[in-house]
Prior knowledge:
The protein contains 28 helices and four strands. By secondary structure, it is mainly alpha-helical.
Amino acid sequence: MFIYLSVVCIPFFNFLVILLFGRYLGHKGSSHLVTFNLGITFLIALYIFITTLGVNDLVIIRLFPWISLGDFQVYWDFYFDVLTIIMCVVVSFISFLVHLYSISYMSEDPFQSSFMSYLSLFTFFMLMLVTSGNFLQLFLGWEGVGLCSFLLISFWSDRVYAVSSAIKAIVLNRIGDIGLLLAIVFIYIEFGTVDFVNVFLLSTILGSKEYFFFGYNVEFFNLVSLCLLLAAVGKSSQYLLHGWLPDAMEGPTPVSALIHAATMVTAGVFLLVRCSSIFVNAPRVLCLVAVVGFLTCIFGAFTGTRVYDLKKMIAYSTTSHLGYMFMACGLLANGIAIFHLFVHACFKALLFLAAGSVIHGFANEQDVRKMSGIDIMLPITVMSLVIGSSSMNGIFGLSGAISKDNILFMDFFGNSYMRFVGFGLLLCSIFYGSLYAARICSFFFDNLLLGAKQKLKTVHESDFYILIPFILLSFLSVYIGFFFENFFKDDYATIWLGKRFYFHDNYSLSFGEYNSYSLFFNTFGTILSDEELALLIENVAAFGSFFAIYIYKVKQNYVFLEKYKNGISFYYIKDVFSYFYVYTERRSMTDRIYNKFFTFMEFRNAKVYFFDFFEKGFLEKFGPQGIVSLLNKLSKSFSFITTGFIHNYLFFSIISIFFIIISINGFFLFSIFFVIAFLFFVLNV
Length: 685
């Protein structure tokens, strides 16, 4: 039991040590201690993974009660199955490399110890999320990663945009948090428990009930699945709630690598896979999950071609690849979704860390248009960027191609009625994805140096604290797909995930056997074999790469294509697709829509109804300020009585005695009327 709990507890121990003894350890001592402990955490998680490989056992560790309210009992439970162990390996490994990278990257920051403590706390809450044994404990980790993301994005608090980006991230995530909280409430009302084991078991036994919700009769599983989907969409930055993820690049680069590769954004995919026994009872919501994935793939790929900030270019690729994972979850290919998450963590961490090295060596310059010709100055860094971009692009023979191709195979050879449109859209997203992946690297290879001379003089290769993660992640980005492909698909994945997760009807079949089961092939006949489909996908990716090289290096910019030499007029691409360019360049107008229809309206309503009517009206008249102003007016009015003449004071004393005598004799109301009339006469004379 201790070895399992140590994976979760060591990062929290790091946070406590820096919090209590950071001033005595110093920056170097704190950074090296935290990194060493994270390395131990990864080794323990790897040892658990190796020892449990091929064993379909579930380990539940119950510590002590957490909440006890009558029949409602919640314990501190830690739920270890193969999915949990895989996530622990991914999170601890990427976190260890990010901590190692931060030793050098943040060495000149005066608050490096605080930064390392936030990273450790971030890792702890993510491990708490993936190892939780009930929904409330999962909600604790869910909120914890949101809190730590706010602290890390706004770490450089002297930057106004960094603070506003952190606020935007936590506000948009609140929308998803409401969905998760509602799902927990509905689950407890229906099942009387929030433990994973009981909920998942009862969800396969009990029939669906209907609830009257906002004027409609909604099935229970549809309602809960929609709430869980809203939570996953907010946390994983899917379409319409994606605005916080590119803006989160205002934080330090290690934060970007940790958020995008192994924590926070992957929490939504983990939630979908963990709750697949609930989603399987709501096929329409599963279709909606796939649709959200389709839209996010397309949007991320399109928008990534219109950005010139290096970190934001990679951020939009994260949005696109999370769409692939959502689409796989919508097709019930949960093993392939986790496989792509596993591979994506490697090449995305490589891309962000390499981008941070370029920015660090380029005096914090992030505009890629000013980074041409640095392939000679930063050979290892640029080569790492090329390997990461190629794996993200899906170039044949790399890990990214294997995981991405499996998702497209599931869509093309599956029975879903969405596949006719979905596969064509995915091919389009692959083309644009390869376009922006090649675009990232195309700016670095040029003989023309466009950067400022002062910045070019300071460009230098990073030290070994930064280069060691490059080498490890480059190796994994190339080969990890070959090592673990069979582990996440076919019969083996059904063995280790089959009892607790649900899959596509054809998931356990080999690709060659799909043809006899597929609706597409039964209708139209065999058009493409599995080998021809793989060749089609690779050709689309290669064509996108070559097209990017042509338009960015040969023509310099595809917006300004010239006319043909034979005199035939040819419209500029900017003129033909002007509305599409505006749509993608302004990030699908979501920020403008939020500002116009939500933020502005809320501010206006707050001013009219709360500030003008309630605060300036009701509270000022009947609150403390109103009482003070009333007393001031009364004191000014009574100041006319203080004339300084004795006969006036004697007169008022006689009137007061008369009032007391009348009150004693039972004429209380008459006395009050008499005093009010007298004061009115005196004050207005």
